[in-house]
Amino acid sequence: MERKELLHQFEALLERPTGSLTGTEELETLEEWDSMSMMGFIALAAEHTGANLSPRQFASCRTVNDLLNLTGTPQS
Q1: Which end of the chain is more exposed for a tag (fewer CB within 10 A), N or C?
Q2: Rounded distance, CA 1 to CA 51, Å?
């Protein structure tokens, strides 16, 4: 899966309009980002990229791009 597609899937997970995220957003500013959306992202990453993420890996993530980097999806 391309990074842009993964970003769109993440937008859908957060119930945000398509194109509303660029990747540079700080996670703490996204009111939709919480423990449930983290679990959803783990499932999304496993399903679409095969990444096996654990909640502990999210500790160093500050931006949406940091999340996407966890999946190993190359930046375009």
Answers
A1: C
A2: 12
